[in-house]
Input
Amino acid sequence: EKSARKVAAVGPATAEALRERGIAVDLVPGEAVAEALVAEFPDGPGRVLLPQAAGARSVLADGLTEKNWDVDVVVVYETVALELTDEQRADASRADAVAFTSSSTVTNYLAAGGPVPGVVACIGPVTAATAHGRGLAVTAVADPHTVAGLVDALVTALPR
Output
């Protein structure tokens, strides 16, 4: 009997990681943000398992619930902030740019007293909004919202 189970991923990197582990991915939104996945997700009813980080935004769970899905949120990991050593802070102060891959990296880096260079790049609009909210002037936002897109954004933003 064929399984009716479907798998969705917010972005292409997660989709690729799943495929590398033999898991077929049925839906990856055109933009790698939770809001896009909610918009492209079909209407329920049905049940969705939503593995996510502790403290993750509720956009997916809330959006899928509004689309008549019964959502089971399972916290599968948490981001733990580390203290920067004086040496790490000194190294960071010599950087030309800082690249943030999530809102938690913005929050934790600033909480650790990380210096902010002239170029601030973010992987996507949610991370950029967090950075703006923390008083940072965001220079570049990756498009697409992937690590490769972030590298491209940095290359474009950095003076040559």
